[in-house]
Amino acid sequence: ISDQKPLGCWSVKHGQILTCPVVCNFETHEYIAVHDDKVLRIWKNEDINLDKAFKATLSADVYRIHSLPEGGPLVLFRGGGVRTLDVLLEAPQQEIEKVISDEVIRWSGAFMEGQQPVLIFTTEKDGDFFVYVSKPKLSSLHKYKLEQQESSKPLCFTAHITNQTVTLLCLYSNDSVYQVLIPLQQDTEEEEEEETLSKSLLLNFSVPGTVLKGTSLVVLDKDHVAVLGSLAVPGKEPRECLSIWNTKFQTLQTSKELPLGTSGQLWCYEEKFFLIHGKVLTVIMYKCETSSLAAAVGKLKDSQKPDVSSFVNWNTLEDEELVVSFQSQESVALKAESKMNLRSRRSTVAKVQPETLSVGQLLLNLKDASTYVLETELRQLMSKAPTPDLQATIGCVVTALTDRCKRNPKYYPQNFLLEIVETRDLSYSLCPDLMAVALEKKDMHLLQICLERFPDIPEEITYACLKAFLSISEAHLQNIDVNLDSVICYVDVEFEDKEVKTEIVENGFSAEMDQDMCDTKIPKETQSRSDGASCPVGLQKAALLNAVLHSAYTETFLLPHLKNLPAQQAILFLRYLYYLYVKCSEKVNTTLPGIRSPTINQIMDWMCLLLDAHFTVMVMLPEAKELLSNLHKFVRAQVRFYSELNKIEGSLRELQRLNHLRESQTYSIEVLEII
């Protein structure tokens, strides 16, 4: 989420439609989807083709699948039947009872009560609403009728279970939230009459001069709910907003307008809000604390909230800098994180002692401090005993340093930043400006370390690093301290036109073999530059390029940037990749020596990416012709070699089988004829 990198993507065939939200099975780490109402698909993260994933055709239409961390997936059918996934997979074509008749399911939710999963769903028929409570493992189902409300109807539902009681919250069209209590009944064999549930008013969205039209409702805790909807002010256009309400004291706790509009849906998971704002998924972290009347009406005394740090507001929604706020006695503390600052952070909203300055307040106080004081205080801050929010604190420290670098172009604490990145478990999303500042300062060593250590670098930054590495001169790199561990063991560099070549040939290719495989005649004076025998770049540049090869990426997002790479730089990079490919192929295990050396898969993937991005240009450039020709010849030789191996694969397997059958104490001479 933080850097908008898709980690997996699967598609159904043309004409098929996913008919309910995909869920994750927490126990098996598998994904579960339903397409065309009845076709169940189950697959794992490493599976590539959805069409080859597990498939089961069910006997009834599926409404929704709910996944519980400890209770497993539950499948709710449109007819009201409920099955656990395990029971369903034992006989996918089993008959599913039709519980509801002429009713339409409007909402469903799954919960755990002790060791038993409970599924609750609401239905509508001719303006009447019904509530069903199902315990699938006990084959138990209870039906209730919801008390009608004059001139208004339910818009959305949410629920939670506490002390054997289901609390169902209903958001009605009259801008009010009603509460319905449903006791979890003990299962009896006797048929029970349909019971009508009474409801009580929990909350009314009455704000002087405005009317809140809610569209989505989630429960935060026993005293707080969040509502997504539109705020209507007389004489003005309605404005969408996210608001948090205190149900205990009937007060609006806080709200924020959403100027780009939403989809009307709000999700809440692990103290984070998820909502679509404009065209992006926005994540807002929150923390609920004990409710008090003073906090609810905003009358906390100043002495009761000593810590109002600079880290706070809803700036996520404007893509501004991260600011986090804590108030020790506040009933609801909200912490908004920018999209680029989510992945590696944990919930750092905590109770702060009055005598202790928060990280935000400390950084605010150091904003105009001298360089020596700033770095001394930041070192002391990082040297504190490990705490749950230490990683986030270090990210704030790096952000403070990069902010000063941007304000003062002459300031750049290279050694301090290197020390932090090398000794701390950071990520790009914790300090998103760090690599941008390093690129501006042309700090190749820091960029190399970041590429090797950060798991979540956006493709745009990866491309910027690649372009910077290819464009910098070899002479300038000679004066830069670069980690050479990934190249020192295998790179052969030309010095004064003398070539250092490797004579070992283990994988079926040498320069002399198969000269007729390519019709292109290449002048001898140019062959040495493109035949992969010597490294086309110096040691320092090779080490930097290796760091790029190690960086994670998504092809869809990287390709548009790679197409902007200048042709000469693309050719140089391809020559280096070809050199690495030849080096890998010299060894039987296709593994380069050294620390953090590129793997054969990384090399091949980047070669394919580069050719996809620049193939048309390279075909037209005369200087790329011999490189493409040699690459084609080498790959063809590899294919021929492995084809020959495949021919004797059967004989080798037979030999292996005979070795297993042979008695250890029996002496024999056997002749195997390979045809």
Strand order within the widest sheet? 8-9-10-11-15
Overall 3D shape = globular
Largest sheet: 5 strands, mixed
The amount of beta strand, in percent, is 25-35%
Number of strands: 26
Unreliable runs, pLDDT <50, ≥5 residues?
A: 299-356, 494-529
CATH architectural category of one domain:
Beta Barrel
Organism: Chaetorhynchus papuensis
Subcellular location: Nucleus, Nucleolus
Pfam families: Nol11_C, NOL11_N
Main location: nucleus
Q: What does this molecule look like?
A:
With 675 residues, the chain is of the alpha+beta class. It has a domain at 205-288: Thrombin, subunit H, CATH 2.40.10. Helix content is 29%, strand content 26%. It contains 17 helices and 26 strands. Strands 8-9-10-11-15 form a 5-stranded mixed β-sheet, with no helix packed on it. The chain has a 5-stranded antiparallel β-sheet with strand order 17-18-19-20-21, with no helix packed on it. A 5-stranded antiparallel β-sheet has the order 22-23-24-26-25, with no helix packed on it. Strand 20 and strand 21 form a beta hairpin. Helix 6 (414-423) runs parallel beside helix 8, helix 8 (444-453) packs parallel to helix 12 and helix 9 (459-471) packs antiparallel against helix 12 (539-550). The longest helix has 26 residues, at 622-647. The two termini are 57 Å apart. The model is unreliable at 299-356 and 494-529 (pLDDT under 50).
